[in-house]
Amino acid sequence: MQLWALIVDGFRQAVDSKIFWVLACGTVVIMLALLSIGFEEGKAVFLFGAFETESGGYNPMFELGRSRLVGVIIYYVMSLFLGWIGVVLMIIATADLIPGMLQSGSVEVLAAKPISRWRLFLYRYLSGLVFVFLQAALFIGLTVLVMGFRWGVWRPGLLASIPLLVLMFSYLYCVSAAVAVKTRSALACVLITIGAWVVFAMVSQAPMLMEAFRMEKSSRLYRVVYAVSWVPPKTGDLPILAARFAHAGTSSDVLPESVLQSGGPQQREDFELAREIEERQLKQPPVYSIGSSLLFEAVVLGFAMLSFARTDF
Predict the structure, then answer these.
(1) Residue among 39, 281, 274, 249 nearest 157 (CA)
(2) Of 91, 157, 227, 307, which one is least surrounded by beta carbons within 10 A?
């Protein structure tokens, strides 16, 4: 009962920030936009038939078209709305959960309850993840239903994106929690967490960028950068992991061949190199990305819990 009460209390605080409803409204708008798109007799219709065009390589009657449609959802719609805009808003919405608990008057009451400090901190932390879970479940669940009933594309594997998004957010939220214990400032939590997110993305994606610039893997610099890239959490792996479970292929596979072949030889070579890099990521067992990220999270969260337990209130 204590666990449930504390999680619900934290969730209500996050919902009171109004960001929950902003994200929910955004989800509704995107679902309406997806519903307005249909496919019939080799044509794609938009705005419920207001205008139409050739479906090209996106005809859901064929497996290639279905995979490309799922890829568009993962690499563009979901990655933009939940992976970027949504994450920033969720960082803001959950930033005050722990600092608010640490405010004078609140923390004394909570600390007086018959519950250990580390459990109190952990329950508050989980309340933020519940907030993210509900947003992810709403968006991805509705997306699966719209794709299935409207387009005839059923990919239940896309539902794996729900826990994946919660995991990705938890990698950042542990930083916010640690900052909250040390500063008790929601603003500091937001700024430092977003800054950490940028650093994590740059460091973890650095080896792929070096490959894109055709740096030799045998070079000492590449080996050092590759080793360092395993330290931070892999916040940028969400689309690849989601595509793996939904069988959507790479981001290059989303584009029709006419687009891939429209550029010059150098551009086509760059496309092939990017596809090769992503295909290697798709084949890599998820345990490597998730495991190393969870290890980082455990260390940071452990530090935050220890600091909270030792703080005098």
Answers:
(1) 249
(2) 227
- The most distant pair of C-alpha atoms in the chain lies apart, rounded to whole Å, by 69
Residue 237's closest CA among 292, 312, 190, 187? 292
Alpha-carbon separation of residue 24 from 28, 167, 188 (angstroms) = 6, 20, 26
Segment 155-177, tens digit of pLDDT: 888 999 999 999 999 999 999 99
159 touches 136 (CB < 8 A): no
pTM: 0.86
What Rg do the C-alpha atoms of the chain give, in angstroms?
22
In this structure, is the dihedral angle defined by the CA atoms of residues 181, 187, 191 and 194, taken in order, positive or negative? Answer: positive
The token duo for 259 is 């687009």
Instruction: Quote the pLDDT of residue 163.
Output: 93
Strands 51-54 and 38-40: unpaired
How far is C-alpha 251 from the chain's CA centre? Answer: 16
For the four alpha carbons of 232, 238, 244 and 249, in that order, the dihedral sign comes to negative
94-137 residue pLDDT tens: 888 888 777 755 555 555 565 677 888 888 888 889 888 888 99
Which amino acid is present at 300? V
Residue 260: pLDDT above 60? no
